[in-house]
Amino acid sequence: MIENNPSNVSSAFEILLEEVETEIDFVNGVGSRAFEARDYGKAKDALERAGLLTSFRDRVAVMRKEWEDIAAVAEREEDEETRSERRNLGKLRKGVRTPEAAYYQPILTVLSRMGGTGKVAETLEQVKQLMKPVLKDVDFQPLASGPDNPRWRNAAQWARNSMIKEGFLKADSPRGVWEISDTGRRMINPSK
To answer: Are 108 and 168 in contact (CB under 8 A)?
Structure first.
């Protein structure tokens, strides 16, 4: 289960930045197709939207840095009792949702099928399809913090962060892209 601690906020910023980057890529594609079709009005609208999204992304990146500075100070100053309290906040009852580790193999399988790399939205959609038989009703419920974000999607993104820490996915992939590592490939094909 995810603990409530400052590093989770940093990971949430990273997830947000990935999603915004995916939206920027989408809008860029719309603008590019409009430009090729000589629909300059639509291309201009896409360019303006991409500018707004890029500005938003940059502000979120600044906020992430501010949070990391705040969290570093708090971590130095927090006593053990406060740390213990923080770890027990906001948890679902154990076993209610599909555990984060259940996403590892499907994520690796999907990325392997995609040639080792995939954009976030496409990867998550394929993970959802692969996991439909094991996901629970609660996994499809929206999070309180994001009514458009179902619990399974959030859990898959947390799993991705854990998989990076464990070396199954690459940490240096371009923003908005998930990429399997050599260690991750060996998890799928142990003989390699």
So the answer is: yes
Highest-pLDDT range among 34-38, 91-95, 142-146: 34-38
Q: Do 67 and 125 fall within a single domain?
A: no
Residue 120's Cβ-count burial label (10 Å; 0-12, 13-18, 19+) is buried
Amino acid in position 92: L
Could you give the CA distance from residue 160 to residue 7 in angstroms, rounded to a whole number? 15
What is the average pLDDT score of the chain?
Answer: 83
The mean pLDDT of 15-28, rounded to a whole number, is: 84
Tell which residue, 152, 147, 95, has the closest CA to residue 129.
Answer: 152
Same domain for 129 and 184, yes or no, is: yes
